[in-house]
Design goal:
By secondary structure, the chain is of the alpha/beta class. The protein folds into two domains: about 5-50 and about 150-315, Rossmann fold (3-Layer(aba) Sandwich), CATH 3.40.50.1100; about 50-140, Rossmann fold (3-Layer(aba) Sandwich), CATH 3.40.50. It has 13 helices and ten strands. A six-stranded mixed β-sheet has the order 1-2-10-7-8-9, sandwiched between helices. Strands 5-4-3-6 form a four-stranded parallel β-sheet, with helices on both faces. α3 (about 50-65) crosses α4 and α11 crosses α12.
Length: about 325
């Protein structure tokens, strides 16, 4: 398992690349959630998501190890981040994306000089192909979440939260493969274990929820959710034990609840966030967690939304 020192080392390693993202607040959102709610705004991060943190930490390590090229398998955000930092370090990158990948994310990968290859619709299909390409090109495969350098890089979000929100009571994190939440859990629980850390997952992509229930990694079939960044088939071999050790609770939210949170943040806060980011906020709006009158940080993991699909995501946010 990674430890908090690994995360502090990652923070030193990536500080020249990433932004320290701001904390946003909305009085309306706090009132709706019956808590003082803060948003850790990784949608304002370089490349539009938290993924640049882990990608930078891992790709820099790969360059040290003599990689001639980089490959990754990604629904979008991880691919953008890997392509960006590889381009910065002048090393070629190939990103294997699903056949139904978000167009704005693949456009960004190409803008960072990343080569695109499409393969299947699940991570179980994409990852082997990316590994094959790495071997064929004398390169190094950069995992989307299940890697200690990736996890440590993502954990820097947790260090920033502790520094930016004094006396925070709890942090709520969207859960896909577990790279972000495992890093945040390690950073927070090994610094201040009194702070609660909760996960939130779409009920139609509930592989981590089932895995925790079964006390073992449990895969689910290919699924569809508007929270496309959380559409993994199972948690990681390295990330899952961290959740088992440290996570306080994981809750599920519906597609309509995600749409409402997405729409509310856009309408009332004028922030365009990804549906994946809205999952943690949806958990708070719908009272999924035993929290009231507390200082809560929800992690807004990214903001790379296909502009052409925004109308499909919006719902009425009138509250009676």
């Amino acid at each position: 398992m990674i430890n908090v020192q690994d995360i502090k080392t990652a923070q030193e390693n990536i500080t020249d690349t990433i932004h320290t993202t701001p904390i946003l607040q909305s009085a309306q959102l706090s009132k709706l959630c019956n808590n003082q709610l803060f948003l850790k705004s990784e949608h304002l991060q370089k490349t539009g998501s938290f993924k640049i943190r882990g990608a930078t930490n891992k790709v820099k390590q790969a360059v040290k190890e003599g990689a001639k090229s980089i490959t990754a398998a990604s629904s979008g955000n991880h691919g953008q981040a890997v392509a960006y930092i590889a381009n910065q370090l002048d090393i070629p990158a190939t990103i294997v994306v699903p056949t139904d990948a978000n167009q704005c994310k693949t456009n960004a990968i190409q803008a960072y000089n990343g080569k695109i290859e499409s393969c299947g619709t699940t991570s179980a299909e994409r990852i082997p192909r990316a590994k094959e390409l790495a071997e064929a090109q004398s390169g190094i495969y950069i995992p989307p979440y299940d890697d200690p350098y990736i996890m440590a890089g993502q954990g820097t979000v947790g260090l920033e939260i502790l520094d930016q929100v004094k006396d925070v009571d709890a942090v709520v994190v969207p859960v896909g493969g577990g790279g972000l939440i495992s890093g945040i859990l390690t950073a927070i629980k090994e610094t201040n274990p009194a702070v609660k850390v909760y996960g939130a997952e779409p009920d139609s992509a509930n592989d981590t929820f089932l895995s925790l229930q079964n006390n073992k990694i449990t895969a689910i079939p290919a699924t569809r959710t508007i929270a496309d960044g959380l559409r993994t088939s199972q948690p990681g071999d390295l990330t899952f034990p961290v959740l088992q050790k440290y996570l306080d609770e994981l809750v599920l939210v519906s597609e309509e609840e995600i749409r409402f949170a997405f729409s509310f943040v856009m309408e009332r806060m004028k922030q365009l966030i990804e549906p994946s980011s809205a999952v943690a906020i949806a958990a708070m709006i719908n009272g999924r967690l035993p929290l009231e009158n507390k200082k809560i940080v929800t992690v807004v993991s990214g903001g790379n939304v296909d502009i052409g699909k925004i109308e499909e995501l919006i719902v009425n946010t009138n509250i009676k």
